[in-house]
């Protein structure tokens, strides 16, 4: 072959080989860069998935912490939207740059919405804390006022009890005179036909004046009460007591003597007898005596 023809052919071949080698290098570099980009998208996709998942969890936690139904519904909608975007991201290949970019923009929006709800809920919590403190203060004040009212009521009750106690009648100088048929006193139980019972209602300027009823109970040694009729009773401490004698007096507030009588028509045993005096549901005196 002619030298003049061979030299250009060799030169062209060398140039082609160099060009192919250069293209190979560039292609290798492009493939390597593409692989690195895919790896970068994989990492970015993983970070985005973690963030989407974290936001969905935060929405759940927020719903538990608040009681506002409207806000709970809003949080539920945002949570569902976040979960939907998370599913879309998981279904997207890392090599799909356009979709990754779109979901990255969506994540930015989700992040901003989350921040707005955090601020809103924090504000609500501050209001709730303030209301809780105010409620606690009001409850404390109410408890203090209630305690003061209870103290005043107790003092009023004590004062009322004292006034009631001070206004009660009181019987002193109680004397029982067992008498025989001749009207003479006797301690022989077989000869007793009448009891004369004397007592004094003491002076009391705080006691209401007017008609007052005195009930007399004569208790035998066995504790039973002398009575003409078992239906003759009076009220005393939420119960009914039988009485022996009922005496109506006109009380003037001054000291006055009272005498009542009991005709003995029943069998009497020897022993210790007791006379009890009552008025206005209160026992105002008692005195024991013995028959032989």
Task: Record keyword descriptors for this entry.
292 residues; alpha+beta; Immunoglobulin-like; 2 domains; three-stranded antiparallel sheet; 3 helices; 53% helix; rod-shaped
Write a brief caption for the model:
It contains 3 helices and 9 strands, in the order αααβββββββββ.
Summarize the helix and strand pattern as letters: HHHEEEEEEEEE
Mean pLDDT: 79
Strand content: 15-25%
Give the biggest sheet. Answer: 4 strands, antiparallel
Q: Which structural category fits the helices and strands?
A: alpha+beta
Q: How many separate domains?
A: 2
Adjacency order of strands in the biggest sheet: 6-3-8-9
Number of strands: 9
Low-confidence stretches: 159-165
Rg over CA atoms, rounded to whole Å, is 55 Å
Helix content: 40-55%
Globally, the shape reads rod-shaped
Q: CA-to-CA gap between the ends?
A: 177 Å
Descriptive overview:
This protein is of the alpha+beta class and 292 residues long. It folds into two domains: 3-127, no CATH class; 171-291, Immunoglobulin-like. It is built from three helices and nine strands. The chain has a four-stranded antiparallel beta sheet, with no helix packed on it. The chain has a three-stranded antiparallel beta sheet with strand order 1-2-7, with no helix packed on it. The longest helix has 70 residues, at 97-166. It is rod-shaped. The termini are far apart. The model is unreliable at 159-165 (pLDDT under 50).
